[in-house]
Amino acid sequence: MEAKTLGSATPRKPVLSVSARKIKDNAADWHNLILKWETLSDAGFATANNIANTKISLLSKDRMELESSSPASDEDAGKVHPEYSKELEMLCEELQATLDGLTKIQVKMEKLSSTTKGVCELEDYHYGEESERPLLFHTWPTAHFYEVSRQLSAMYGKELCLKRAIAEELAHATDHGLTLSYLSLWLHQPYVESDSKLLLESMLLETGHRAL
């Protein structure tokens, strides 16, 4: 009798368990993807810094040799340091590889957001117009997980676009101040807002990845 009562009291438990497990897995994936992003972003900054230093050195040597050369040799000024051109090309390829890695991470972030939206839609279908819905974990309604995922995904999407623009412009920049601005933008990631860590940590806390 007792077993029958328990069974009839929780007919929707399997659906909720699957949803909760998916949300918890997504939270862990967010944590891992952001860690990978930061590692790649730091590596990209080191490469970008090397590009800037190589470019500055190349321009400085070209300027010095132009000042000391005769007019007849001016046309060869751009060919004086082929080794620097090769090094610059290799560094730009390295930075592009980093951008490719960041792009893959951001695509996975988009998929996490889409998956979380799917969980919300499943819940909407399951409960319909019912306003009282059981929480999957502690205090967050399911829709809040999607809102947090959507915010994080948008932040990193904008940041990726910025990094692409920096990579395109950096090797061609001739102004030292502008080059430093590009490097600063890459390092400080202005589109990854200050509350992004709070959003992530709150999600990890809510799903049990962090102890209450």
Describe what you observe in this structure.
- With 212 residues, the chain is an all-alpha fold.
- 77% of the residues lie in helices and 0% in strands.
- It contains 6 helices and no strands.
- It has helices at residues 2-9, 13-68, 82-127, 142-170, 176-188, 196-206.
- Helix 2 runs parallel beside helix 4 (142-170) and helix 4 (142-170) runs antiparallel to helix 6 (196-206).
- It is elongated, with a radius of gyration of 26 Å.
- The two termini are 37 Å apart.
Note the run of SSEs as H and E.
Answer: HHHHHH
> In whole angstroms, how far apart are the ends?
37 Å
Report the β-strand fraction as a percent range: under 5%
User: Mean pLDDT across all residues, rounded?
Assistant: 85
Overall shape: it is elongated
**Spatial extent as radius of gyration:** 26 Å
Helix segment count? Answer: 6
Task: Name the structural class.
Answer: mainly alpha
Helix content: over 70%
Low-confidence stretches: 1-16
The biggest beta sheet is recorded as: none
Care to count the β-strands? 0
Give keywords.
mainly alpha, 212 residues
Set down the secondary structure blueprint.
Elements: H1 2-9, H2 13-68, H3 82-127, H4 142-170, H5 176-188, H6 196-206
Helix pairs in contact: 2-3, 2-4, 2-5, 3-4, 4-5, 4-6
Short description:
It contains 6 helices and no strands.
